[in-house]
Phospholipid-transporting ATPase (Zophobas morio), 1248 residues
Amino acid sequence: MMSRASFRSSRTHTLDNQRRIRANDRQFNAQFKYASNYIKTSKYSVLTFLPLNLFEQFQRLANFYFLCLLVLQMIPAISSLTPVTTILPLMGVLGLTAIKDAYDDIQRHISDSQVNNRKSQAVRRGKLVQERWSAVQVGDVIRMDNNQFVAADVLLLTTSEPNGLCYIETSELDGETNLKCRQCLMETAVMGQDDVLLGEFDGEIVCETPNNLLNKFDGNLTWKNKSYSLDNDKIILRGCVLRNTQWCYGLVVFAGKDTKLMQNSGKSKFKRTSIDRLLNFLIIGIVFFLLSMCLFCMVACGIWESLVGQYFKDFLPWDTLVPSEPLGGATIIALLVFFSYAIVLNTVVPISLYVSVEVIRFVQSFLINWDEQMYYDTTHAAARTTTLNEELGQIEYIFSDKTGTLTQNIMTFNKCSIMGNSYGDVIDARTGEVIEVTEETESLDFSFNPNYEPEFRFFDKNLLEAVQRRDADTFNFFRLLALCHTVMSEDKDGKLEYQAQSPDEAALVSAARNFGFVFKERSPNSITIEVMGQKEVYELLCILDFNNVRKRMSVILRREGVLRLYCKGADNVIYERLQSGSEDIKHRTQEHLNKFAGEGLRTLCLASRDLDEEFFNNWKQRHQEAALSLDGRDERLDAIYEEIERDMVLIGVTAIEDKLQDGVAQTIANLILAGIKIWVLTGDKQETAINIGYSCQLLTDELVDVFIVDASSYEEVHQQLLKFKENIKIVNTFQPQSPAGIQLGTSNGHMDATEHSTGTSTPPHQQANPPAVSVVTFSAELEYHGGSIEDATVEETTAGFAIVINGHSLVHCLHPQLERLFLDVVMQCKSVICCRVTPLQKALVVELIKKNRHAVTLAIGDGANDVSMIKAAHIGVGISGQEGMQAVLASDYSIAQFRFLERLLLVHGRWSYYRMCSFLRYFFNKNFAFTLCHFWYAFFCGFSAQTVFDPMYISVYNLFYTSLPVLAVGIFDQDVNDKNSVLYPKLYRPGHYNLFFNKKEFFRSAMQGCFVSIVLFFIPFGTYYDAVSPSGQGLSDYMLFCAVAAAILVIVNTAQIALDTYYWTVFNHIMIWGSLAFYFVADYFYNYVIGGPYVGSLTKAMSEVNFWFTAVLCVTISVMPVLAWRFYFVDVSPTLSDRVRLKQRLAQVRSRHSQDVLRTPSARRARRSIRSGYAFAHQEGFGRLITSGKIMKKLPNADFNIPNIIGKLNMNSGGSSNAAAAPKTAPQSQESNSSGRAPIQDLDTINL
């Protein structure tokens, strides 16, 4: 029995850790209850919407509070106000929120429906039938056609291509648009597209359970009594797109929520702003304040009733439920009064606050949607949520994807150097100076070439003239570009198209094509090109494939008996392998390299070597032996490659531009000046990410050091981080000043004892140049008095570091034991770049910062691989780009270009935060002023819960009389205009420290409201206490006093808001002055037409001069302290916004020509030499596929089928790759003009 039980336990444990699938057997697979392919992201159904939505809404403290208040108002014995005063606003809030939630969920339903109803083709009983995606199940065999999305995670069974190959694009998963290759088992490939055979396929798969690892799959296929190992190269994931493959069939392994794409999506979280959280805290405090006032009034009422009230029973009889015994009766009355005052004073936390907040956010969302300056083509910015607008003004960390977000992912051939001659610059014939290339610059005409591409642009006619005069060196240069690559060609509708595994290769082959050196086709043993219309066929003998350690690739070709090796790679790698001599050409080419790299271009060196037959045959034999060896294969192959890739002749250099999206560099520079830290999280390779970092100004020459974390084991990563922390400590100790102008070095923390050890950072060398950016000269404390922001000061003086982290190292960095050390290092870095990260790692990095820094985070991306990061951040921004709409659908805001993020944050975000804070300050101010009048009156009415104001006035005070002016502030007001908000990014910083609205500001608003309530109550009370009109009529009645206090309260609130409105529009005038006029009209209509109890009171009061003197006195006393405070601080300690506002006003009275001209940052800036983005953007393995014939549609002669086995990818990229000397620093004047940093921030230089 024990053995049987243990066997069952073991079998159950095994099943829990693996998945068993039988092809074409739904009945067998159904017993395991695997997830279907139906996707559901919506929250509600028609039946569940009302109960679920109400349950969610009453989880908000304020809604629950008002529900309890409504219950109290239903009890006649304690309520002095009708329940309608609470029912109407509560229903309005719940209704508005429910409509918004319903709209959002309907959009999710529509999105789900579109995905679930996509069409796929499945094999059913030997026939191909059309099925919806949602009907596909685990174990089904489905067909996919070219350019179609894959419906589920499938095991590749058969394809249209030879050797069972197919090509996929994975941009939805990892952001990479280069093609990836997958290959099915040869045993299943023989089934072809025979639906009968595929319908009879009964293989059984045992594999891993669903997980989020995109690059890993383990399993076994058992078929016809044979077992076959399965790995990731045989799996195609949901979200991939089939490319260059007519069709393929696959067996569904994971479906729906179990697919790796959905496993990486992350869960949707309810997002609340920091102001929401602060409001919840404040409401709790206000409720306690309310209860304390009620408690005080209860005690006071009990005392008054026992001492005085018992003697007035004839005039003020007690209720029947109150005992006649004095002490007992007073106690019961006091207890009832407690609840009565809870109702009367409840307006200190009015429900209209939440209605107003929702309305303001809703309108602010439309202002974002309607902003014409954030339009691109036909795409506009969209606020997909209405609850997070003000948090856009408090962002401290931005986590950005790279491909498609910062870059266009378009490479262009920009410049080159051939045998010491530089090409690419356009020279002015008259002055001899370089002309900047713009969109208006006329491109060369390549129409003489029938294979040219109309979109190709090159501007230097000297290179084209060199080709046309058949210059031998230029021909050699372009022949190398047309021959040394792994690009595949395809004739599509008579047009030659290329498919490259990296955009760099595509750009180089395309450049050769346009200059007349056209790559036509390849086979495993030949390459055919067309040179100026003449066909040339080369015999392909060997491809020495790229890998991340070699940083180069080579091809060995034979034509007309001549053997030649062509090689391209990183400059430092190629230069080490050149033959001696030609020092002048090498030196000039090195200068060109420095110049190109300094402009942010991705450089690549080209070289060649002629070989003799005897040497090559001997080398080829040893290469075969090394490729087939089992021990030390990688090391032996590298040694063999070294033998032939030497004594080469330098041909030239290429310079490719990875086009950034427009305005990226300026946007990043401005956001950094605004105090926002930007992290780039990309699935791309390390060197590519570093190159983009320099192009977009995240990495600059002003940094002291760039740390590279690339170790594979926990211990090595720990060692690197410790070393970096020590380096930072040393630099901060001995050089605490701002590091602008310090020469850059790189390190990656290895402790190797070799000569090229990268265990130490490059020592900082002081440059003579000052910083290129003027910084605001007054301190943060001076800018925004009252804020404690010591961190900002530290940030300005900390030495500059950047850190680049590889994905396999990040796994260890996120380990709980290394987390704190990792944070200590990255928090000292101005820029952080994480490369080769998975979608889930992106989300984990965001969560790490949220958890440990308590900072507001924003994630921005454009692909499905960014969805989990977007959902994890406080605010998610999707870019509606080239990689589908998944990121947009998961986002809170969508924009068309990264550059619009600057306007979204610095303008709309800052305005939304400023407006919301202004609104909240005024709202609490006016409500404390309104509510506390009842409290002061309690001392004169025996604490009987009698109200000062008319019940109708109490009901509509917040709804009509004072709502529109504060809404005008919350929607339209702006302290500075949009232009200056961008020109002075430091205006954004108060949001980081909650300076505009916090507990201190709330307390100040409450105190101001308390002061106004004292003025409003006691001055009219004193005025009308024994007042008599000139005609002898008494003016000291209760209703007249109440009408006067109510009218002056509206006037004071209107005056306060009018004085504090900085930006007047027609709507402001209508809403502010219109509300004041509406009060008097509404009061007259209610009292005279409807027949209110206070009929004639206000009219009588306004006919006497007492009222107008009292109103002027109350307004003056209420507003004067605020004005005095403001004038004092604007004069003595002006904030940055005060100074900018002054400049703004003075500019309005000057002529337009006298306005200050502020420089805009350059999109390109000189930097240290970072070479060969190609070498890192490329991917190993394609050479092996080409020469093995597997990648070809036609199998070649077997004589040339040479195996080319390449070792594992070594991610250990030492600092030697970056060891080239930095370009010479430009003179100070040039540096200041070409700086890519943000505009001048020193307001002392502006003539105010």
About this structure: The chain is about 45% helix and 15% strand.
